[in-house]
Protein backbone atom coordinates (compact mmCIF):
# COMPACT_ATOMS: atom_id res chain seq x y z
CA UNK A 1 0.00 0.00 0.00
CA UNK A 2 1.25 3.45 -0.91
CA UNK A 3 1.36 5.51 2.29
CA UNK A 4 2.25 8.77 0.59
CA UNK A 5 -1.28 10.11 1.11
CA UNK A 6 -4.87 9.24 2.07
CA UNK A 7 -6.71 6.50 0.24
CA UNK A 8 -10.43 5.79 0.09
CA UNK A 9 -11.38 2.52 1.73
CA UNK A 10 -13.52 0.12 -0.28
CA UNK A 11 -15.15 -3.16 0.76
CA UNK A 12 -12.47 -5.84 0.81
CA UNK A 13 -12.69 -9.19 -0.95
CA UNK A 14 -14.48 -11.99 0.85
CA UNK A 15 -12.88 -15.32 0.03
CA UNK A 16 -12.34 -18.52 1.94
CA UNK A 17 -8.60 -18.00 2.39
CA UNK A 18 -9.08 -14.69 4.22
CA UNK A 19 -11.49 -16.10 6.77
CA UNK A 20 -8.74 -17.99 8.58
CA UNK A 21 -6.62 -14.82 8.93
CA UNK A 22 -7.17 -13.27 12.37
CA UNK A 23 -5.44 -10.07 11.24
CA UNK A 24 -8.19 -9.25 8.73
CA UNK A 25 -11.63 -7.86 9.66
CA UNK A 26 -14.36 -10.37 8.79
CA UNK A 27 -18.15 -10.23 9.06
CA UNK A 28 -19.46 -11.23 12.50
CA UNK A 29 -16.19 -10.33 14.19
CA UNK A 30 -15.34 -8.05 17.08
CA UNK A 31 -13.07 -5.03 16.83
CA UNK A 32 -11.87 -2.16 19.01
CA UNK A 33 -12.06 1.40 17.70
CA UNK A 34 -9.91 4.13 19.25
CA UNK A 35 -11.45 7.58 18.95
CA UNK A 36 -9.53 10.89 18.80
CA UNK A 37 -10.19 11.31 22.54
CA UNK A 38 -8.22 8.04 23.16
CA UNK A 39 -11.45 6.35 24.24
CA UNK A 40 -11.74 2.75 22.98
CA UNK A 41 -15.10 1.31 21.95
CA UNK A 42 -16.04 -2.29 21.25
CA UNK A 43 -17.92 -2.83 17.98
CA UNK A 44 -19.25 -6.02 16.38
CA UNK A 45 -19.45 -6.31 12.61
CA UNK A 46 -22.73 -7.92 11.55
CA UNK A 47 -22.75 -11.23 9.71
CA UNK A 48 -24.22 -9.38 6.70
CA UNK A 49 -22.84 -5.81 6.95
CA UNK A 50 -24.59 -4.52 3.84
CA UNK A 51 -25.46 -0.85 4.32
CA UNK A 52 -25.47 -1.05 8.15
CA UNK A 53 -23.71 1.79 9.94
CA UNK A 54 -21.64 2.29 13.09
CA UNK A 55 -22.53 5.44 15.03
CA UNK A 56 -19.58 7.13 16.74
CA UNK A 57 -21.48 10.11 18.16
CA UNK A 58 -19.96 13.50 17.38
CA UNK A 59 -17.24 11.79 15.35
CA UNK A 60 -19.76 10.73 12.72
CA UNK A 61 -20.99 7.43 11.33
CA UNK A 62 -19.45 4.90 8.97
CA UNK A 63 -20.70 1.92 7.01
CA UNK A 64 -19.48 -1.47 8.18
CA UNK A 65 -18.75 -2.73 4.69
CA UNK A 66 -15.81 -0.33 4.37
CA UNK A 67 -14.06 -2.06 7.30
CA UNK A 68 -14.66 -5.65 6.17
CA UNK A 69 -11.63 -7.11 4.43
CA UNK A 70 -9.25 -4.45 5.77
CA UNK A 71 -6.34 -5.32 8.11
CA UNK A 72 -6.39 -4.24 11.73
CA UNK A 73 -4.24 -1.32 12.83
CA UNK A 74 -5.13 1.16 10.09
CA UNK A 75 -6.25 4.72 10.81
CA UNK A 76 -9.18 6.26 8.95
CA UNK A 77 -10.88 9.61 8.53
CA UNK A 78 -14.67 9.39 8.67
CA UNK A 79 -16.33 11.27 5.82
CA UNK A 80 -19.75 12.91 5.84
CA UNK A 81 -21.08 10.31 3.37
CA UNK A 82 -20.11 7.50 5.85
CA UNK A 83 -17.16 6.38 3.78
CA UNK A 84 -13.61 6.04 5.09
CA UNK A 85 -10.30 7.46 3.93
CA UNK A 86 -7.19 5.53 4.96
CA UNK A 87 -4.65 7.80 6.61
CA UNK A 88 -0.90 7.30 6.21
CA UNK A 89 1.17 6.68 9.35
CA UNK A 90 2.24 9.82 11.13
CA UNK A 91 5.89 10.62 11.69
CA UNK A 92 7.31 11.74 14.99
CA UNK A 93 8.70 15.20 14.39
CA UNK A 94 11.24 16.76 16.71
CA UNK A 95 10.28 20.22 17.91
CA UNK A 96 12.83 23.00 17.86
CA UNK A 97 12.91 25.11 20.97
CA UNK A 98 12.63 28.89 20.58
CA UNK A 99 13.02 31.79 22.96
CA UNK A 100 9.26 31.93 23.57
CA UNK A 101 7.94 31.39 27.08
CA UNK A 102 4.49 31.16 28.61
CA UNK A 103 5.02 33.92 31.15
CA UNK A 104 3.28 36.64 29.08
CA UNK A 105 0.19 34.55 28.30
CA UNK A 106 -3.11 35.70 29.81
CA UNK A 107 -5.95 33.23 29.24
CA UNK A 108 -9.53 33.23 30.36
CA UNK A 109 -11.16 36.05 28.40
CA UNK A 110 -12.88 36.47 25.05
CA UNK A 111 -10.04 38.53 23.65
CA UNK A 112 -7.74 35.49 23.56
CA UNK A 113 -10.08 33.41 21.38
CA UNK A 114 -12.57 35.58 19.47
CA UNK A 115 -14.23 32.56 17.76
CA UNK A 116 -17.35 31.69 19.74
CA UNK A 117 -18.93 28.26 20.14
CA UNK A 118 -21.76 29.30 17.81
CA UNK A 119 -19.33 30.31 15.07
CA UNK A 120 -17.33 27.08 15.41
CA UNK A 121 -20.53 25.02 15.29
CA UNK A 122 -21.56 26.86 12.11
CA UNK A 123 -18.20 26.05 10.54
CA UNK A 124 -18.65 22.36 11.38
CA UNK A 125 -22.17 22.28 9.90
CA UNK A 126 -20.92 23.96 6.74
CA UNK A 127 -18.73 20.90 6.10
CA UNK A 128 -15.42 22.63 6.69
CA UNK A 129 -12.60 20.18 7.34
CA UNK A 130 -11.36 19.83 10.92
CA UNK A 131 -7.87 20.99 9.94
CA UNK A 132 -9.30 24.25 8.58
CA UNK A 133 -11.32 24.84 11.76
CA UNK A 134 -8.18 24.29 13.86
CA UNK A 135 -6.21 26.57 11.55
CA UNK A 136 -8.76 29.38 11.98
CA UNK A 137 -8.70 28.95 15.75
CA UNK A 138 -4.91 29.21 15.76
CA UNK A 139 -4.95 32.28 13.52
CA UNK A 140 -7.48 34.04 15.73
CA UNK A 141 -5.76 33.05 18.98
CA UNK A 142 -4.18 36.20 20.40
CA UNK A 143 -1.53 34.45 22.49
CA UNK A 144 -0.66 31.49 20.28
CA UNK A 145 2.68 32.91 19.13
CA UNK A 146 3.64 33.59 22.76
CA UNK A 147 3.48 29.88 23.58
CA UNK A 148 6.46 27.57 23.54
CA UNK A 149 6.70 25.00 20.76
CA UNK A 150 5.67 22.28 23.20
CA UNK A 151 2.60 24.25 24.28
CA UNK A 152 1.67 24.82 20.63
CA UNK A 153 1.91 21.09 19.96
CA UNK A 154 -0.31 20.29 22.95
CA UNK A 155 -2.83 22.90 21.79
CA UNK A 156 -3.03 21.36 18.32
CA UNK A 157 -3.50 17.86 19.77
CA UNK A 158 -6.32 19.04 22.05
CA UNK A 159 -8.12 20.61 19.11
CA UNK A 160 -7.59 17.54 16.93
CA UNK A 161 -9.11 15.34 19.64
CA UNK A 162 -12.10 17.68 19.70
CA UNK A 163 -12.77 18.28 16.00
CA UNK A 164 -10.97 15.59 13.98
CA UNK A 165 -12.92 12.55 12.80
CA UNK A 166 -9.99 10.17 12.81
CA UNK A 167 -10.29 6.64 14.19
CA UNK A 168 -7.92 3.69 14.54
CA UNK A 169 -9.12 0.09 14.36
CA UNK A 170 -7.20 -1.94 16.95
CA UNK A 171 -6.67 -5.66 16.64
CA UNK A 172 -8.51 -7.45 19.47
CA UNK A 173 -5.35 -9.10 20.76
CA UNK A 174 -4.96 -10.27 24.34
CA UNK A 175 -2.95 -7.12 25.12
CA UNK A 176 -5.57 -4.74 23.68
CA UNK A 177 -8.55 -6.61 25.18
CA UNK A 178 -7.01 -6.66 28.66
CA UNK A 179 -6.13 -2.98 28.40
CA UNK A 180 -9.69 -2.25 27.22
CA UNK A 181 -11.20 -4.00 30.24
CA UNK A 182 -8.70 -2.36 32.58
CA UNK A 183 -9.58 1.12 31.34
CA UNK A 184 -13.33 0.57 31.10
CA UNK A 185 -14.15 -1.41 34.26
CA UNK A 186 -11.10 -2.61 36.24
CA UNK A 187 -13.25 -4.05 39.04
CA UNK A 188 -14.76 -6.49 36.54
CA UNK A 189 -11.35 -8.12 36.07
CA UNK A 190 -10.19 -7.66 39.69
CA UNK A 191 -7.79 -4.89 38.56
CA UNK A 192 -5.75 -7.45 36.62
CA UNK A 193 -3.23 -5.56 34.49
CA UNK A 194 -1.73 -6.86 31.26
CA UNK A 195 1.82 -7.12 32.66
CA UNK A 196 0.50 -9.11 35.63
CA UNK A 197 -1.36 -11.43 33.29
CA UNK A 198 1.84 -11.96 31.31
CA UNK A 199 3.77 -12.84 34.46
CA UNK A 200 1.09 -15.37 35.42
CA UNK A 201 1.33 -17.03 32.00
CA UNK A 202 5.11 -17.21 32.37
CA UNK A 203 5.07 -18.59 35.91
CA UNK A 204 2.38 -21.13 35.00
CA UNK A 205 4.60 -22.42 32.18
CA UNK A 206 1.71 -22.45 29.69
CA UNK A 207 2.75 -24.38 26.60
CA UNK A 208 1.15 -26.32 23.73
CA UNK A 209 0.16 -29.84 24.72
CA UNK A 210 -0.16 -29.03 28.44
CA UNK A 211 -3.17 -29.73 30.63
CA UNK A 212 -4.26 -26.95 32.98
CA UNK A 213 -7.01 -26.29 35.50
CA UNK A 214 -8.26 -22.69 35.56
CA UNK A 215 -10.43 -20.93 38.15
CA UNK A 216 -11.39 -17.69 36.42
CA UNK A 217 -13.41 -14.76 37.79
CA UNK A 218 -11.83 -12.09 35.55
CA UNK A 219 -14.23 -12.24 32.58
CA UNK A 220 -12.36 -15.13 31.00
CA UNK A 221 -8.95 -13.47 30.66
CA UNK A 222 -7.15 -16.38 32.35
CA UNK A 223 -8.97 -18.91 30.20
CA UNK A 224 -8.25 -16.86 27.07
CA UNK A 225 -4.55 -16.62 27.98
CA UNK A 226 -4.31 -20.39 28.43
CA UNK A 227 -6.11 -21.07 25.13
CA UNK A 228 -3.92 -18.56 23.30
CA UNK A 229 -0.69 -20.12 24.63
CA UNK A 230 -1.80 -23.72 24.00
CA UNK A 231 -2.83 -22.98 20.40
CA UNK A 232 -5.39 -25.79 20.21
CA UNK A 233 -3.12 -28.51 21.65
CA UNK A 234 -3.77 -29.88 25.14
CA UNK A 235 -6.62 -29.29 27.57
CA UNK A 236 -7.96 -26.34 29.56
CA UNK A 237 -10.42 -27.29 32.32
CA UNK A 238 -12.50 -24.43 33.70
CA UNK A 239 -13.89 -24.92 37.22
CA UNK A 240 -17.29 -23.21 37.41
CA UNK A 241 -19.91 -22.62 40.05
CA UNK A 242 -22.72 -24.18 38.02
CA UNK A 243 -23.14 -26.59 35.14
CA UNK A 244 -24.41 -23.90 32.76
CA UNK A 245 -22.04 -22.88 29.93
CA UNK A 246 -19.86 -19.91 30.96
CA UNK A 247 -20.16 -16.55 29.25
CA UNK A 248 -16.64 -15.26 28.68
CA UNK A 249 -16.66 -11.81 27.13
CA UNK A 250 -12.90 -11.93 26.60
CA UNK A 251 -13.15 -14.99 24.36
CA UNK A 252 -15.81 -13.31 22.26
CA UNK A 253 -13.72 -10.15 21.87
CA UNK A 254 -10.59 -12.05 20.82
CA UNK A 255 -12.19 -13.60 17.71
CA UNK A 256 -10.47 -16.84 18.73
CA UNK A 257 -10.78 -19.66 16.18
CA UNK A 258 -12.83 -22.71 17.01
CA UNK A 259 -9.72 -24.91 16.91
CA UNK A 260 -8.39 -23.03 19.95
CA UNK A 261 -11.68 -23.05 21.86
CA UNK A 262 -12.34 -26.75 21.26
CA UNK A 263 -9.85 -27.78 23.97
CA UNK A 264 -11.80 -25.86 26.64
CA UNK A 265 -13.97 -27.98 28.94
CA UNK A 266 -16.07 -27.05 31.95
CA UNK A 267 -16.61 -28.88 35.24
CA UNK A 268 -18.62 -27.56 38.18
CA UNK A 269 -17.36 -27.84 41.75
CA UNK A 270 -19.98 -30.40 42.74
CA UNK A 271 -18.88 -32.75 39.95
CA UNK A 272 -15.25 -32.43 41.11
CA UNK A 273 -16.14 -34.46 44.21
CA UNK A 274 -15.49 -38.15 43.62
CA UNK A 275 -18.40 -39.12 45.90
CA UNK A 276 -20.85 -36.87 44.07
CA UNK A 277 -23.57 -38.56 42.03
CA UNK A 278 -24.93 -36.10 39.47
CA UNK A 279 -28.65 -36.02 38.78
CA UNK A 280 -29.11 -37.62 35.39
CA UNK A 281 -32.09 -36.82 33.25
CA UNK A 282 -33.55 -39.84 31.43
CA UNK A 283 -32.10 -40.34 27.97
CA UNK A 284 -34.46 -43.06 26.84
CA UNK A 285 -38.13 -43.82 27.23
CA UNK A 286 -39.51 -46.67 29.32
CA UNK A 287 -40.84 -48.42 26.24
CA UNK A 288 -37.90 -47.66 24.01
CA UNK A 289 -40.18 -45.96 21.50
CA UNK A 290 -40.31 -42.26 20.69
CA UNK A 291 -43.32 -40.11 19.87
CA UNK A 292 -41.47 -38.15 17.20
CA UNK A 293 -38.12 -37.73 15.51
CA UNK A 294 -37.56 -34.54 17.49
CA UNK A 295 -37.97 -36.40 20.79
CA UNK A 296 -35.53 -39.08 19.66
CA UNK A 297 -32.93 -36.44 18.70
CA UNK A 298 -33.30 -34.70 22.07
CA UNK A 299 -32.80 -37.97 23.97
CA UNK A 300 -29.77 -38.89 21.86
CA UNK A 301 -28.27 -35.45 22.37
CA UNK A 302 -28.85 -35.76 26.11
CA UNK A 303 -27.18 -39.18 26.15
CA UNK A 304 -24.11 -37.87 24.34
CA UNK A 305 -23.87 -34.97 26.81
CA UNK A 306 -24.05 -37.31 29.81
CA UNK A 307 -21.37 -39.58 28.33
CA UNK A 308 -19.09 -36.60 27.61
CA UNK A 309 -19.58 -35.34 31.18
CA UNK A 310 -18.72 -38.76 32.60
CA UNK A 311 -15.57 -38.96 30.47
CA UNK A 312 -14.53 -35.47 31.59
CA UNK A 313 -14.89 -36.48 35.24
CA UNK A 314 -12.76 -39.56 34.62
CA UNK A 315 -10.12 -37.39 32.95
CA UNK A 316 -10.15 -34.99 35.89
CA UNK A 317 -9.94 -37.74 38.53
CA UNK A 318 -7.07 -39.40 36.62
CA UNK A 319 -4.99 -36.39 37.66
CA UNK A 320 -1.52 -35.50 36.34
CA UNK A 321 -2.58 -31.95 35.40
CA UNK A 322 0.35 -29.69 34.53
CA UNK A 323 -0.78 -26.54 36.30
CA UNK A 324 -3.38 -24.64 38.28
CA UNK A 325 -4.24 -20.98 37.64
CA UNK A 326 -6.50 -19.07 40.03
CA UNK A 327 -7.99 -15.59 39.90
CA UNK A 328 -11.12 -15.81 42.02
CA UNK A 329 -12.87 -14.01 44.84
CA UNK A 330 -12.86 -17.11 47.03
CA UNK A 331 -10.27 -17.95 49.67
CA UNK A 332 -7.42 -19.31 47.49
CA UNK A 333 -5.99 -21.96 49.82
CA UNK A 334 -9.29 -23.84 49.96
CA UNK A 335 -9.23 -24.08 46.16
CA UNK A 336 -5.59 -25.20 46.13
CA UNK A 337 -6.24 -27.79 48.83
CA UNK A 338 -9.20 -29.16 46.88
CA UNK A 339 -7.39 -29.51 43.55
CA UNK A 340 -3.85 -30.43 44.67
CA UNK A 341 -4.47 -34.24 44.64
CA UNK A 342 -5.06 -34.07 40.89
CA UNK A 343 -1.88 -32.15 40.00
CA UNK A 344 1.19 -33.82 38.55
CA UNK A 345 4.64 -33.67 40.03
CA UNK A 346 6.35 -30.32 39.32
CA UNK A 347 2.97 -28.82 38.38
CA UNK A 348 2.81 -25.04 38.78
CA UNK A 349 0.34 -23.28 41.08
CA UNK A 350 -0.24 -19.62 40.19
CA UNK A 351 -2.69 -17.43 42.14
CA UNK A 352 -3.59 -13.78 41.54
CA UNK A 353 -5.19 -11.36 43.96
CA UNK A 354 -5.31 -7.57 44.13
CA UNK A 355 -4.80 -7.84 47.92
CA UNK A 356 -1.55 -8.90 49.59
CA UNK A 357 -3.15 -10.11 52.84
CA UNK A 358 -5.17 -12.80 51.09
CA UNK A 359 -2.11 -14.32 49.44
CA UNK A 360 -0.01 -13.94 52.60
CA UNK A 361 -2.45 -16.10 54.53
CA UNK A 362 -2.45 -18.72 51.78
CA UNK A 363 1.35 -18.68 51.69
CA UNK A 364 1.54 -19.17 55.46
CA UNK A 365 -0.70 -22.24 55.16
CA UNK A 366 1.26 -23.72 52.25
CA UNK A 367 4.77 -23.31 53.67
CA UNK A 368 4.59 -26.05 56.36
CA UNK A 369 3.14 -28.58 53.89
CA UNK A 370 5.65 -30.74 52.00
CA UNK A 371 3.43 -30.82 48.88
CA UNK A 372 4.25 -27.19 48.00
CA UNK A 373 7.75 -26.16 47.04
CA UNK A 374 8.88 -22.57 47.64
CA UNK A 375 5.57 -20.68 47.76
CA UNK A 376 6.55 -17.07 47.06
CA UNK A 377 4.71 -13.80 46.45
CA UNK A 378 5.69 -11.23 43.85
CA UNK A 379 4.24 -7.78 43.22
CA UNK A 380 3.67 -6.60 39.67
CA UNK A 381 5.23 -3.23 38.92
CA UNK A 382 4.93 -1.18 35.74
CA UNK A 383 6.08 2.27 34.70
CA UNK A 384 4.71 3.73 31.48
CA UNK A 385 6.68 6.26 29.46
CA UNK A 386 5.79 8.92 26.96
CA UNK A 387 8.23 8.42 24.10
CA UNK A 388 8.59 11.54 21.95
CA UNK A 389 11.71 13.24 20.54
CA UNK A 390 13.09 15.43 23.31
CA UNK A 391 10.10 14.69 25.57
CA UNK A 392 10.62 11.14 26.82
CA UNK A 393 9.58 10.86 30.46
CA UNK A 394 7.35 8.76 32.74
CA UNK A 395 3.64 9.35 32.37
CA UNK A 396 2.15 11.84 34.80
CA UNK A 397 -0.67 9.50 35.88
CA UNK A 398 -0.30 5.72 36.26
CA UNK A 399 -1.89 2.93 38.24
CA UNK A 400 -0.62 2.51 41.78
CA UNK A 401 -0.21 -1.26 41.61
CA UNK A 402 -0.85 -4.30 39.46
CA UNK A 403 -1.79 -6.83 42.12
CA UNK A 404 0.13 -9.75 43.62
CA UNK A 405 0.98 -13.27 42.44
CA UNK A 406 1.53 -16.32 44.65
CA UNK A 407 3.52 -19.02 42.89
CA UNK A 408 4.48 -22.52 44.06
CA UNK A 409 5.44 -25.89 42.61
CA UNK A 410 3.61 -29.07 43.54
CA UNK A 411 5.80 -32.00 44.61
CA UNK A 412 4.84 -35.50 45.70
CA UNK A 413 4.99 -36.05 49.45
CA UNK A 414 7.48 -38.91 50.08
CA UNK A 415 8.13 -39.44 53.83
CA UNK A 416 11.28 -41.44 53.05
CA UNK A 417 12.78 -38.76 50.84
CA UNK A 418 15.40 -36.35 52.14
CA UNK A 419 16.38 -32.89 51.07
CA UNK A 420 19.40 -32.14 48.92
CA UNK A 421 21.29 -30.63 51.89
CA UNK A 422 20.52 -33.67 54.01
CA UNK A 423 21.86 -35.93 51.26
CA UNK A 424 24.99 -33.81 50.97
CA UNK A 425 25.59 -33.98 54.71
CA UNK A 426 25.06 -37.76 54.63
CA UNK A 427 27.55 -38.18 51.78
CA UNK A 428 30.13 -36.07 53.63
CA UNK A 429 29.63 -38.12 56.79
CA UNK A 430 30.07 -41.37 54.85
CA UNK A 431 33.21 -39.97 53.24
CA UNK A 432 34.62 -39.08 56.65
CA UNK A 433 33.85 -42.60 57.91
CA UNK A 434 35.57 -44.14 54.90
CA UNK A 435 38.61 -41.90 55.41
CA UNK A 436 38.75 -42.81 59.10
CA UNK A 437 38.45 -46.51 58.22
CA UNK A 438 41.27 -46.23 55.69
CA UNK A 439 43.41 -44.37 58.23
CA UNK A 440 42.75 -47.03 60.86
CA UNK A 441 43.53 -49.82 58.40
CA UNK A 442 46.73 -48.07 57.36
CA UNK A 443 47.79 -47.59 60.98
CA UNK A 444 47.04 -51.23 61.71
CA UNK A 445 49.06 -52.41 58.74
CA UNK A 446 51.94 -50.17 59.80
CA UNK A 447 51.86 -51.62 63.31
CA UNK A 448 51.87 -55.19 61.95
CA UNK A 449 54.76 -54.33 59.64
CA UNK A 450 56.80 -52.87 62.50
CA UNK A 451 56.06 -55.90 64.66
CA UNK A 452 57.27 -58.23 61.90
CA UNK A 453 60.44 -56.19 61.52
CA UNK A 454 61.12 -56.45 65.28
CA UNK A 455 60.69 -60.25 65.15
CA UNK A 456 63.12 -60.50 62.25
CA UNK A 457 65.69 -58.38 64.10
CA UNK A 458 65.44 -60.61 67.18
CA UNK A 459 65.92 -63.68 65.05
CA UNK A 460 69.10 -62.22 63.58
CA UNK A 461 70.44 -61.43 67.07
CA UNK A 462 69.80 -64.99 68.28
CA UNK A 463 71.76 -66.36 65.37
Automatic annotation (TrEMBL):
InterPro entries: TRM6
Annotated stretches, region: Disordered: 1-22, 420-463
Protein name per Swiss-Prot or TrEMBL: tRNA (adenine(58)-N(1))-methyltransferase non-catalytic subunit TRM6
Keyword Nucleus (UniProt): yes
Compartmental location: Nucleus
Main localization (coarse): nucleus
Compositional bias segments (type: Basic and acidic residues): 432-444
Top-rank taxon, per record: Eukaryota
Amino acid sequence: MDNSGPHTSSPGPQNASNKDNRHIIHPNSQLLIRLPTKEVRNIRIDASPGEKSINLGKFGSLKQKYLVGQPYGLSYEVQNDKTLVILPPRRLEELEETGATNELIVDGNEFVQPLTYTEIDALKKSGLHASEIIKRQIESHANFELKTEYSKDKYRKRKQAKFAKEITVLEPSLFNVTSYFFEKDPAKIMHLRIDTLGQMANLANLRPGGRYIVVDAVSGLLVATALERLGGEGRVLYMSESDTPPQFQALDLLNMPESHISILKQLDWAASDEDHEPIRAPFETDTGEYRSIGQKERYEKRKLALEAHAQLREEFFAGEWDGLLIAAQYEPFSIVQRLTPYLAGSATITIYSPFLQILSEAQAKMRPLPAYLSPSITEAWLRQYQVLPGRTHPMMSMTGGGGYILHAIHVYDDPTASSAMAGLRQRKRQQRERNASRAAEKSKNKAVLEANQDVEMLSEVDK
